């Protein structure tokens, strides 16, 4: 444990400012643990990941895939869509594997799947 906070509601994955911590290297929020009210921090490099899982899927311009499918995925409002492969893992879940690691894939945020200029579908990051 490196500090105390006034509640997890004040933190976002990827956040650097306002942590109230002193460290020789910058620290970022890596994960928020609601059950224990813990906020996990670490270096920026620990925010990188090549995979995400999404549920509550909604297919727009394609049918729900049964085989792996190539898409570009946008994981937040100002995120540049990144190439990835979607694989169905359950009746309402997919796993996406990005070609390159992405920064701060955040549970609770939406993931939007594009094929060209069309929205193929989307879901919620878990």
Plain-language structure description:
The structure is a single chain. The protein has two domains: 8-42, no CATH class; 47-125, Beta Barrel (Elongation Factor Tu (Ef-tu), domain 3). The two termini are 25 Å apart. It is built from no helices and eight strands. It has 126 residues and is mainly β. The chain is elongated. The strands form two sheets. The chain has a six-stranded antiparallel barrel. Strands 1-2 form a two-stranded antiparallel ribbon. Strand 1 and strand 2 form a beta hairpin. The mean pLDDT is 88. Helices cover 0% and strands 50% of the residues.
Q: How is the topology of this model organized?
A:
Layout: E1 28-33, E2 38-42, E3 48-59, E4 69-74, E5 82-90, E6 93-103, E7 110-115, E8 118-125
Antiparallel strand pairs: 1-2, 3-6, 3-8, 4-5, 4-7, 5-6, 7-8
Helix content: under 10%
Main pleated-sheet profile = 6 strands, antiparallel, barrel
Order of helices and strands: EEEEEEEE
N→C terminal distance: 25 Å
Low-confidence stretches: none
Bulk shape: elongated
CATH superfamily of the largest domain: Translation factors
| SS content category | mainly beta
What is the domain total for the residues? 2
Roughly how many Å is the radius of gyration?
16 Å
């Amino acid at each position: 444990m490196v500090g105390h906070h006034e509640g997890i509601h004040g933190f976002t994955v990827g956040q650097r400012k306002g942590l109230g911590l002193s460290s020789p290297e910058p620290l970022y929020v890596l994960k928020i643990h609601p059950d224990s009210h813990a906020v996990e921090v670490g270096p920026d490099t620990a925010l990188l990941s090549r995979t995400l899982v999404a549920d509550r899927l909604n297919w727009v311009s394609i049918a729900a895939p049964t085989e792996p499918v190539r898409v570009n995925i946008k994981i937040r409002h100002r995120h540049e869509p990144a190439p990835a492969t979607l694989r169905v893992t359950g009746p309402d879940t997919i796993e996406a594997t990005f070609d390159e690691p992405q920064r701060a894939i955040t549970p609770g945020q939406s993931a939007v799947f594009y094929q060209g200029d069309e929205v193929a579908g989307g879901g919620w990051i878990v």
